[in-house]
C-alpha cells in the first residue's frame, strides 16, 4: 500500500499523510526534528548531535531524553501502512528514508531548477521553452520563505541552520525569476514579464533591475500610468530602506516612459547592497555596468553540483576580475562559510599560493603538519567559495587547487586567468568583451538611447571624470564608434573615457583615430583584442608628459601597493612627484586606497603594470630601479627591527604585512642579482615579522638562502642570520636544526664578544632543549642567557620574560611551586613595566597553572580568567590561548562539570589546529589522563558528541564559555 507523506516547507509549514493534514505533533520540536531529518536526508545523524541541536541549553542526558520523547511522538504521528518506513532508526543514529513514498517541496524545487540549468547551455544565450517551463514550476512552488513564521525551535544552531536554508532558497528563487524575466523580455511576452518581475520583487523588493523590468513590461503592455506609479513605489522603497535615490538607469527609464518612449529599452542593473555574510570580498569602488547575461550564466554554472572549478578565461582587460567579484557577491548567501577572495597578481612564486590562501583564511603553519594538509583539513568540512584572481603566471600551482578540491567535497573554486588551468573537472567560461552597438540599429537616431553595455560603461565613466557634453545624434554616433574602435574592452573604454583632454566624443574619436593610424601594427602573434588594448594603453601613456611617463614606468617596479615616500625614494626625489601621481590618478593609470594603519597608498592594475614594465625595459632603466627598490625596502625592514620588540609590535606587523609583496620582490631581486649582503640583511631584519605573522617556511627558506652565501657575509651579520634561522626552526618544532643554528650563532657571537647576541643564542638553545624535554640542559642555557643579559645587556624585555617563564615551567611539574612562582612573578612585573600585554597574559597563565597544580583551584580560576580576558581584548589567536583553555577544562573536570570540560578541551584542540601550535610536553602529559578520565565517565558516544560540539566553537564562543557562563570551581581547596 502506497501511503505518501507530503511536506511543504516553502512558506508556512504543512504536513499531510495520505491526503490528510497532520495536526497532532504535540509541540514544535517534533516538527523541527522531522523538518531537519527530511531536508538533511542525504546522511545519517548522531542522536547526541540532534539532541544538542534541538535542546542546546540542557544537559546532554536531559537532551537525549527529550529526543527520545520527540522521536516517540514522531513515530506515532507517521505510523502508517506504507511499504517503506519514513525513518531509519538505529541505536545511535537517525535518518530520513529517501526511498520512502514522500513528497518534499524543497526537494522538488531544487530538482526543477537543477534540471532547467542542466539543460541550459550558456553559449545558447537564452532559456529554451522547456527550461523556462521547469523554472516557472519551481517558482510556483515558492509560496514564501523557508518555514515562514514557523517557530519550531529556540536553539541558536537550529535557527542558524534555518537561516542558511532560507537564504540559499531565496537566492535560487530570485535567480530563477531573473532568468525568466530576461527570457520573456527578449521574446516580448510582456504579461509573463509582469508576472515574474512581480514575483522577483516579492522576494527582493529593493531590486532596481526588477523594478525596471516591471516598468518596461507595464509600458509595453499599454499601462504607461502604472509604469510611472511603479517608479514612485521603487523610489519610496529605496528612500525608506536605504535613504537612497534610484539609480540613473532607473531615472532615465522613468523619463523615457513619461515622454512616451519607454518600450524596448534595455538598461543595466547595479548590484544591491552587500549582505552580511562571512568572507572578505572587496566592495567595488565604482558601479558595475552590464554583464547581466554573463553573471546569470556564471551563477547557473556555479549552482550545478558537478561544477566545482570554474575558470574565467580571456585576454587582459576584458574585466575578468570585475565579473568574478560581481558573481561572487551574488553567491555569498549560497555559501554559509563564506566567499573568500585571494588576489594573486603580484605573487611571483607559485610555491606561495598555499600561503596566500592560508593567509586570507587565517590559517597559520603548524609545527610538523604541511601547510597544504592544514588547508585541506580546515576547508573540508566547510561550504565555501574561493575566488583566485590572476592565476595565469602561477600555473605550476594548479595541482594544489586540484588537491584541495579532491579532499574538500563542499569547496568550489572560481579562478580568473588568461589561460585555463588544464585540471580534470575544470569548466572554462570565456569572458567576452562588452556588447557593442549594432551599426545598422535604427534606434541610433534617438541620441538618448545607448543600447549596448560598452556605451553604458563609456558614459558612466565619462560622467565620473567630469565630462558634461550634451548627447545629440552626432555625439551618440561618436560614442558608438569609440566603443567599436576599442573592441568593447572594459579597460580600454575606461582609460579613454577618463581622459581630460577632450570635451566632446567627436574630439576624442579624432584623437583615437590619429593614434591608431600609428599603432595598428601590434604583435602579429597576439589576438586582435590584445593588440587593441595595448594601443589603448599606449595612447593613454603618450598623453602624459615625459616626466609623467617616466614616473609611470618607474612605478612598475613596485609589487602591490606603495606610498608617496616610497615613490619619491625609488623613482627619484622630486618635489613634483605628488603632483605627477595626481595626474596618473586622473588618467586612471593608478588607483589610491588606505592601508591597514590609515596611510594613503597607491597601486596599479596588473595589465597596466605589464605595459609599464615593457617600457621600462625598452628604456634600459630596470637594473637601477630594482636596486633602488631593494635599498628602500631594506631600510624599511631594518627600521622595523626595534619596534617589533616593543609595544608597537602589532602596528609594525601590520605595516610589514601591507608591504610584504614589495619585501618579497626585493628579496627575489637580491637573490637573483647575487647581492648576498642585501639578502642577508633583509632576512635578518624580517625574521621576527615572519615569526609573529606565521610565515615560517618562507622565512626559513630566505634565511637558509642567505646562509648559502655565508662566505660573502661579514661575521656579525652571519651570526644574526644563524640565530634567526634557529628561532624559526624552533617555531616549526625542528628542534635539532634549531639547536644547530643557535649553537653556530653562539660560537660566532662569542668570537665577536657581543653579549646581546650571545644571550639570545643561549636563550634559543635553552628553548630547544626545553621542548626536547632536556630540562637540565635547558636550565643551564636559560640561566646563562639571563646572567649575560642582566650583567652586560642585550636582551629585550620580552626575551627576559621568555627566559624566566621557561625556567619556571619545568619546576612546577616537579612540585617546586614557590621557586616557579617567584620566577614568573618576576617576569610578570617586568612585562607590566614594559606594557607588553601578550607577555602579561602569558605570565598570568603560568601563575594560574602553578595555583592549579598546588591545589588552590579558586585562585587558579581567577588567574586563568584574567589571562583569558586579556587575550580576548587583544583579539589573540595564539597557541597560549589553547593552553589557558585546557587549564580551564581541567578545573571544570575536577569539579564534575564533565561535558563542559570536554567542550573546552575540544575547543582548545581546534584552536591549536588553526594556529599550528602544540602543548609543551609536560603540559600534554598533565592533561592526557584527565581527557581519558572524561571519556571513561561519559562513554565513547557522549564524549564524541561533546567533543564534536566543542570543536565547532569559534574563539569568541570558547572565551564566553569560560568568562560569561558561570564559575568553573566551587571554591574549595583540593590537595594536589
From TrEMBL:
GO terms for biological process: regulation of DNA-templated transcription. It comes from the Bacteria. GO terms for molecular function: ADP binding; DNA binding. Residues 104-258 form the Bacterial transcriptional activator domain. This is LuxR family transcriptional regulator. It comes from Gloeobacter kilaueensis (strain ATCC BAA-2537 / CCAP 1431/1 / ULC 316 / JS1). SUPFAM superfamilies: C-terminal effector domain of the bipartite response regulators, P-loop containing nucleoside triphosphate hydrolases, TPR-like. Pfam families: BTAD, HTH_77, NB-ARC, TPR_12.
Amino acid at each position: 500500500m502506497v501511503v505518501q507523506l507530503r511536506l511543504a516547507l516553502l512558506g508556512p509549514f504543512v504536513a499531510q499523510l495520505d491526503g490528510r493534514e497532520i495536526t497532532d505533533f504535540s509541540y514544535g520540536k517534533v516538527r523541527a526534528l522531522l523538518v531537519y531529518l527530511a531536508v538533511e536526508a542525504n546522511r545519517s545523524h548522531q542522536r547526541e548531535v540532534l539532541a544538542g541541536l534541538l535542546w542546546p541549553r540542557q544537559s546532554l542526558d536531559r537532551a537525549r531524553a527529550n529526543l527520545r520523547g520527540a522521536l516517540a511522538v514522531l513515530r506515532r504521528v507517521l505510523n502508517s501502512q506504507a511499504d517503506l518506513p519514513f525513518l531509519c532508526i538505529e541505536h545511535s543514529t537517525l535518518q530520513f528514508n529517501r526511498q520512502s513514498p514522500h513528497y518534499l517541496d524543497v526537494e522538488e524545487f531544487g530538482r526543477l531548477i537543477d534540471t532547467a540549468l542542466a539543460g541550459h547551455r550558456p553559449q545558447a544565450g537564452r532559456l529554451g521553452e522547456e527550461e523556462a517551463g521547469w523554472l516557472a514550476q519551481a517558482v510556483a512552488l515558492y509560496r514564501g520563505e523557508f518555514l515562514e513564521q514557523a517557530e519550531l525551535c529556540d536553539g541558536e544552531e537550529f535557527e542558524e541552520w534555518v537561516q542558511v536554508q532560507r537564504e540559499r532558497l531565496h537566492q535560487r528563487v530570485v535567480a530563477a525569476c531573473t532568468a525568466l524575466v530576461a527570457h520573456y523580455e527578449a521574446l516580448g511576452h510582456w504579461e509573463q514579464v509582469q508576472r515574474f518581475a512581480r514575483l522577483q520583487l516579492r522576494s527582493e523588493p529593493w531590486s532596481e533591475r526588477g523594478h525596471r523590468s516591471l516598468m518596461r513590461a507595464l509600458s509595453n503592455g499599454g499601462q504607461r500610468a502604472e509604469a510611472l506609479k511603479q517608479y514612485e513605489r521603487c523610489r519610496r522603497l529605496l528612500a525608506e530602506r536605504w535613504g537612497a535615490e534610484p539609480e540613473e538607469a532607473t531615472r532615465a527609464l522613468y523619463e523615457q516612459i513619461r515622454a512616451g518612449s519607454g518600450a524596448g529599452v534595455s538598461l543595466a542593473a547595479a548590484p544591491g547592497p552587500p549582505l552580511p555574510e562571512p568572507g572578505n570580498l572587496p566592495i567595488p569602488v565604482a558601479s558595475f555596468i552590464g554583464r547581466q547575461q554573463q553573471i546569470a550564466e556564471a551563477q547557473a554554472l556555479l549552482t550545478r553540483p558537478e561544477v566545482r572549478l570554474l575558470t574565467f578565461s580571456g585576454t587582459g582587460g576584458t574585466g575578468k576580475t570585475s565579473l568574478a567579484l560581481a558573481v561572487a557577491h551574488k553567491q555569498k548567501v549560497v555559501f554559509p562559510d563564506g566567499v573568500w577572495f585571494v588576489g594573486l597578481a603580484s605573487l611571483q612564486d607559485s610555491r606561495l599560493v598555499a600561503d596566500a590562501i592560508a593567509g586570507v583564511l587565517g590559517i597559520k603553519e603548524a609545527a610538523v603538519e604541511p601547510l597544504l594538509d592544514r588547508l585541506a583539513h580546515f576547508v573540508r568540512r566547510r561550504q565555501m567559495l574561493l575566488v583566485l584572481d590572476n592565476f595565469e603566471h602561477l600555473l605550476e600551482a594548479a595541482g594544489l587547487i586540484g588537491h584541495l578540491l579532491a579532499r574538500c567535497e563542499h569547496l568550489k573554486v572560481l579562478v580568473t586567468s588568461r589561460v585555463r588551468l588544464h585540471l580534470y573537472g575544470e569548466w572554462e567560461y570565456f569572458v567576452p568583451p562588452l556588447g557593442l552597438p549594432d551599426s545598422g540599429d535604427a534606434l541610433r537616431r534617438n541620441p538618448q538611447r545607448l543600447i549596448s553595455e560598452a556605451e553604458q560603461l563609456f558614459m558612466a565613466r565619462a560622467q565620473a571624470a567630469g565630462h558634461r557634453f550634451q548627447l545629440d545624434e552626432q555625439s551618440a554616433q561618436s560614442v558608438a564608434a569609440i566603443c567599436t574602435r576599442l573592441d568593447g574592452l572594459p579597460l580600454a573604454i575606461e582609460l579613454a573615457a577618463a581622459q581630460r583632454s577632450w570635451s566632446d566624443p567627436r574630439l576624442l574619436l579624432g584623437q583615437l583615430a590619429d593614434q591608431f593610424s600609428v599603432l595598428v601594427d601590434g604583435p602579429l602573434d597576439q589576438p586582435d583584442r590584445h593588440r587593441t588594448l595595448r594601443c589603448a594603453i599606449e595612447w593613454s601613456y603618450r598623453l602624459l608628459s615625459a616626466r609623467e611617463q617616466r614616473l609611470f614606468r618607474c612605478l612598475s617596479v613596485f609589487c602591490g601597493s606603495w606610498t608617496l615616500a616610497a615613490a619619491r625614494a625609488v623613482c627619484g626625489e622630486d618635489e613634483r612627484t605628488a603632483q605627477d601621481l595626481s595626474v596618473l590618478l586622473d588618467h586612471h593609470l593608478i588607483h589610491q586606497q588606505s592601508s591597514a594603519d590609515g596611510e594613503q597608498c597607491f597601486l596599479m592594475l596588473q595589465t597596466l603594470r605589464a605595459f609599464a614594465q615593457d617600457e621600462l625595459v625598452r628604456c634600459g632603466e630596470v637594473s637601477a630601479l630594482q636596486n633602488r627598490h631593494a635599498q628602500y625596502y631594506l631600510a624599511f625592514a631594518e627600521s622595523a627591527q626595534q619596534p617589533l620588540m616593543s609595544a608597537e609590535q602589532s602596528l609594525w606587523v601590520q605595516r610589514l604585512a601591507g608591504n610584504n609583496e614589495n619585501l618579497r620582490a626585493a628579496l627575489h631581486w637580491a637573490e637573483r642579482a647575487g647581492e648576498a649582503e642585501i639578502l642577508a640583511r633583509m632576512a635578518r631584519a624580517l625574521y621576527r615579522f615572519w615569526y609573529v605573522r606565521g610565515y615560517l617556511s618562507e622565512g626559513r627558506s630566505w634565511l637558509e638562502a642567505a646562509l648559502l652565501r655565508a662566505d660573502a657575509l661579514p661575521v656579525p651579520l652571519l651570526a644574526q642570520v644563524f640565530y634567526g634561522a634557529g628561532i624559526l626552526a624552533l617555531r616549526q618544532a625542528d628542534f635539532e636544526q634549531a639547536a644547530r643554528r643557535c649553537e653556530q650563532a653562539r660560537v660566532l657571537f662569542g668570537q665577536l664578544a657581543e653579549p646581546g647576541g650571545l644571550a639570545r643564542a643561549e636563550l634559543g638553545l635553552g628553548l630547544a632543549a626545553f621542548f626536547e624535554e632536556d630540562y637540565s640542559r635547558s636550565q643551564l642555557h636559560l640561566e646563562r642567557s639571563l646572567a649575560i643579559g642582566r650583567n652586560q645587556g642585550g636582551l629585550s624585555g620580552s626575551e627576559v620574560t621568555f627566559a624566566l617563564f621557561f625556567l619556571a615551567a619545568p619546576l612546577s611539574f616537579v612540585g617546586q611551586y614557590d621557586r616557579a612562582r617567584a620566577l614568573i612573578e618576576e617576569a610578570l612585573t617586568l612585562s607590566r613595566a614594559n606594557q607588553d600585554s601578550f607577555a602579561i597574559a602569558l605570565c598570568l597563565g603560568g601563575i594560574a597553572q602553578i595555583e592549579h597544580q598546588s591545589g588552590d583551584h579558586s585562585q587558579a580560576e581567577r588567574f586563568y580568567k584574567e589571562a583569558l580576558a586579556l587575550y580576548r581584548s587583544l583579539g589573540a589567536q595564539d597557541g597560549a590561548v589553547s593552553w589557558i583553555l585546557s587549564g580551564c577544562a581541567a578545573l571544570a573536570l575536577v569539579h564534575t562539570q564533565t561535558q563542559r570540560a570536554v567542550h573546552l578541551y575540544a575547543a582548545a584542540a581546534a584552536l591549536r589546529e588553526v594556529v599550528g601550535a602544540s602543548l609543551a610536553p609536560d603540559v600534554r602529559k598533565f592533561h592526557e589522563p584527565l581527557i581519558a578520565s572524561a571519556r571513561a565517565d561519559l562513554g565513547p558516544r557522549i564524549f564524541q558528541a561533546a567533543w564534536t560540539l566543542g570543536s565547532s566553537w569559534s574563539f569568541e564562543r570558547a572565551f564566553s564559555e569560560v568568562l560569561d557562563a558561570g564559575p568553573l570551581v566551587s571554591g574549595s581547596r583540593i590537595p594536589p
